[in-house]
Amino acid sequence: MKFLCSRGAVVFVVFCSLFIDITIYGIVIPVLPDLLQGKFNSSVGLNGLFVAIFGLGVLFGAPLASYVSDKYSNRKLPMVVGFVALAAGSLGIAYANSLAVLYISRGLQGIGSGVTFAVGLAAIIDIYPAEMLDTPISIAFTGSTIGGTSGPIIGGVVFKYYGQHGIGYLMFGAAILILIIRIVIPDSDQINASLAQEQNNPKTSIDLEDGLPSDEQGTDNLIEPTTDAKSALESPEFSSQRKEEQADKEITYWDMLKEIRIFLMCIVTIFVYGLVCSVEVVVPISFSEKGLDSDKIGYSFIALTIGSAIGGLLMGKVLESKYVTNKFGPYKKRFVFIMIGSSIA
């Protein structure tokens, strides 16, 4: 199918990836009191650790996967490995009979989520020019927002009727589903090659007089590069010079953190997600003490995320508008709106 080798296919798989990542993250949130305090008789303080260990997995998986993915120019294989980690961690939660197994499995889920989240967004960046990134990125992040809404609801209902095994099997099935989708969709370099081939080989019109494609007329006027120019481009000295120039352009994580905008984005991310995670820990405990079941606790998270879904879709269109681009510039506009949104939050 032609769609499989299109940009839309990559956006679709990343949308599904972020949706399932965050759904898997959120499925367990409303059931924490029943699972940790009810089954394992653990202290309430361990609820926060359960949320934090997922984040630690992301912190380990995302940078490592990003480095490996860039080094070997491969987006597909790291994402496949990430989904396998998500599936394995989900099965671990389904059969966990001790806190140690439960927490290790949750950490494995975090690693898988970090890998697929980071590399998935990189796959979109690979196939779109910078000025066209806003809409596909906003679509992808809408998947994560919808997952944030549906995850707690689904988890609360499934746990109420099917218990620990039910939510574990559900997360495992979701991970396997997106794994299959990722395997079917080609990697970014293959899609770029396909797009380049389409641009370089457009449909040619036929000249009725001589039966030759019109693109072939006038080819005698093309100037062939001289032998000296070819030999200069193919010489070892030229190749080594290009490699040295590419090596000089390599950017490390520390180099990126020295950029004030990237550093501020890291601070904003820590602040925003810190607030969200604190809500995810406190709300289930508070509502559980008031006698609410896991399904009703899950419903309460709708209010937290439904606005984000709407905002994410709208911002993609707003950022691509000519007015905003001319007002703030093609790159600064994103920084400005992120800071405004964070201040409102």
Automatic annotation (TrEMBL):
State its location(s).
Answer: Membrane
Region Disordered: start-end pairs: 203-244
Please name the GO terms that the record assigns under molecular function.
Answer: transmembrane transporter activity
GO CC aspect terms:
membrane
Origin superkingdom:
Eukaryota
Enumerate the UniProt keywords alphabetically: Membrane, Transmembrane, Transmembrane helix, Transport
Q: Which positions, given as ranges, span the membrane?
A: 9-32, 44-68, 80-104, 110-128, 140-161, 167-185, 262-285, 297-319
Classify the protein's membrane topology as the record does.
Multi-pass membrane protein
Q: Which Gene3D superfamilies match?
A: MFS general substrate transporter like domains
Residue limits of the Major facilitator superfamily (MFS) profile domain? 10-345
Recorded hits in Pfam families, A to Z, give:
MFS_1
Keyword Transferase listed? The answer is no
Name this polypeptide is given? Major facilitator superfamily (MFS) profile domain-containing protein
Q: Which organism is it from?
A: Smittium megazygosporum
Q: What is the lineage of its organism?
A: Eukaryota, Fungi, Fungi incertae sedis, Zoopagomycota, Kickxellomycotina
